[in-house]
Design a protein that fits this description.
CATH superfamily of the largest domain in chain A: Tetracycline Repressor, domain 2
Number of helices of chain A: 9
Number of strands of chain A: 0
Oligomer: homodimer
Largest interface: A-B, 42 and 43 residues
Helix content of chain A: 55-70%
CATH class of the largest domain in chain A: Mainly Alpha
Distance between the termini of chain A: 62 Å
Chain lengths: ~210, ~210
DNA sequence: TGCCAAAGTGAGTGATTCTAACATATGTAA
DNA sequence: TTACATATGTTAGAATCACTCACTTTGGCA
């Protein structure tokens, strides 16, 4: 019982008492949410996978929603990092950079549909979570900056903000429809990259590349 | 105990044994989902509100997810009816009719954010629910027909399908971002009707009215 | 070394989902 | 009208879960 190397997908059980249980719990919950759906997760099962008693999680999280919020917070960090990496992989100010932000968004939703749904389906305790709110705004900020650079306008410009919001709406909706498998008729036939380029160009008012 | 007129918001208790429990349960669950969030609902509470024992619901629904699916099914009927009514309130083939479909969509999300989230957040038993799948496709069909009429092309045309999908993505994303209160900075300032007209026009390739 | 706080355990409470066995009302056919 | 089959309800109970409390163990620190 000193070691348990086959503990789900968590890298390893560090120690009997001291291990970084908090991170391991978040990883376990993320996995559960991904496989069993956002509401098919239980604190008891997560604790079981982490190899601790069912009361241990409450030393690190106040509540069941608090655990969910931890997962969401971590996921939003990764999402924003992916968006920024997408923007950085193309010349600053190019429309390709804008589309790459959207592409990163859709890719994240495809790779982790359960977590993605959780991020934008969290309602309980949402009002009392200023850090999640601010992280959401930072994600939006990535879109705003890319659009601003592309348009040659300051990010505070209202037109930039509006166009960034439209871009985000489209990409957000496309992500949801994709993972929901609704209307796969059109979704499957679509090359996302071309679509994102097309729509980004149209929304930003730039000529569309063919 | 023959009458119980103050039973939540359900119109009235029809009879002791015979009442239309199924419809009343769906109404109670819809209400619970709306007030306490999609996962803050319990079969026991719904039964309590309908004035029956906690085992009664299982005579009408196989499962907890089955009840949710019943609510979703009913909601999708209403959503489609609202979209069709929106389209019908403007001349057939007009861009205003297309935008009205989107407006109905956003209005529904605003009016019933909990149910809306449930409709597109349902994952459990989703694969074994062909009626929900077909209802989703019928909703998409409303968009397709409006776009086809506007473009003067048959609904089966692939360009029509793709543009309809883009329209739906945008409207869907806008709905979600609106009810999630993310990035209210831009969302609040927006006149939806003008936006929908603008985007609809851009996506359909028609001149944008100013 | 001795003490304190952090971190984990085990048992227990109340609520939940769902099943099983039983009771009652409704509709149909003799 | 009576008798049966079925739909619809009930109570009781098993299994699970969220969460709390009292207790124990461990690591850090003066």
């Amino acid at each position: 019982m000193t070691e348990d190397p086959a503990a789900s997908t968590a890298p390893a059980r560090a120690a009997y008492h001291h291990g970084d249980l908090r991170a391991q719990l978040i990883a376990a919950v993320r996995e559960l949410v991904e496989t069993h759906g956002p509401d098919g997760f239980s604190v008891a099962e997560a604790a079981r996978r982490a190899g601790v008693s069912s009361a241990a999680p409450y030393k690190h999280f106040k509540d069941r929603p608090a655990i969910l919020r931890g997962v969401v917070s971590e996921a939003m960090d990764r999402l924003r990092a992916a968006m920024e990496a997408g923007a950085a992989s193309y010349p600053a100010g190019s429309i390709e950079a804008v589309a790459a932000v959207g592409r990163a968004y859709v890719s994240f939703a495809r790779a982790e549909p359960g977590v993605f749904r959780l991020v934008f389906g969290l309602t309980e305790g949402h009002e009392t979570a200023p850090d999640l709110q601010s992280k959401g705004e930072r994600c939006f900020g990535v879109v705003v900056r890319a659009a601003a650079a592309c348009l040659g306008l300051p990010p505070e410009n209202s037109d930039v903000q509006a166009r960034a919001y439209m871009l985000w709406s489209f990409v957000h909706g496309h992500s949801f429809l994709t993972i929901d498998k609704k209307s796969n008729v059109a979704s499957d036939r679509i090359d996302d990259w071309f679509y994102l380029l097309t729509v980004s160009g149209a929304i930003l008012g730039l000529p569309i590349r063919r």
